[in-house]
Amino acid sequence: MVVPELNPEHIEVIPAQRKRLGTKRGFITVKSNCSLQSYVPALSPLRDVFGLKTVLACTYQAISGAGKTFETFPEIVDNVIPYIGGEEEKSEQEPLKLWGHIENGVIVNADSPVITSQCLRVPVSDGHTAAVFASFKKKPEIEEIKKIWAEFKSPIHELGLPSAPKQFIHYFEEPDRPQAKLDRDMDGGMGVEVGRLREDKLFDIKFVCLSHNTLLGAAGGAVLTAELLAVKGYFD
């Protein structure tokens, strides 16, 4: 399970996978759930620096994530549906796999943070939004976080892959951003947009983030993964 901007080293499990399956060519690489790619990228560099303990993530997911349009999903018009089957389990489990490490040819999940989530379907065509609350082992300052996001370079940044965004994490100072309609297409739909960062009364911080679910979260992210695999020689 690979998000190239976060855990490209996980492709190194492919030789062990081939050995286990008894194959010399071919392999299986998958994308993570599209909704968590709106907020896990923003948490990842903070986790590395401050130690992430607990996360509450509420996602507000576009109808294209269900393979729908407004014409084929009339019940979503003027409505919010507070349940998406299987999404909350994925939101709570898959980040730990992305943050895991390779041991004896398999991915061993990270043992922290503790994540809880709720996932809602909202009347938006494209773009998954998340409201995120997080606590850390070492509480960060707000300006520290903004600086880390602004300076974040993904592990694949120097590879110059065609589909990679120039700036992976964009932070908005405006209080009403990011917005799906205005911001989901930044960097060709391959960036993550973040805003409303502030301290919280129960957690250390809270913020809102957004990603394009059918680009970064699906087709575009899959193409980027293929570009990474090609550069690393897995398509010989």
Account of the protein in words:
The protein has 236 residues and is an alpha/beta fold. The protein has one domain: Dihydrodipicolinate Reductase, domain 2 (2-Layer Sandwich). It contains six helices and eight strands. Helix 5 (180-183) links the parallel strand 6 (169-172) and strand 7. The chain is globular.
- Element order: H for helix, E for strand: HHEHEEEEHEHEEH
Looking at CATH, which topology would you report? Answer: Dihydrodipicolinate Reductase, domain 2
CATH superfamily: Dihydrodipicolinate Reductase, domain 2
Structural domain tally:
1
Class inferred from helices and paired strands: alpha/beta
CATH class: Alpha Beta
Low-pLDDT stretches are none
Number of helices: 6
Percentage of residues in helical conformation: 25-40%
Beta-strand portion reads 15-25%
Distance between the termini: 21 Å
* Strand elements, count: 8
Give the arrangement of secondary structure elements.
Layout: H1 14-21, H2 40-50, E1 52-61, H3 87-98, E2 101-103, E3 106-108, E4 114-121, E5 128-136, H4 142-151, E6 169-172, H5 180-183, E7 192-199, E8 205-211, H6 215-231
Parallel strand pairs: 1-4, 6-7
Antiparallel strand pairs: 1-5, 2-3, 5-8, 7-8
Identify the notable features of this structure and list them briefly.
Dihydrodipicolinate Reductase, domain 2, alpha/beta, 236 residues, two-stranded antiparallel ribbon, 26% helix, six-stranded mixed sheet
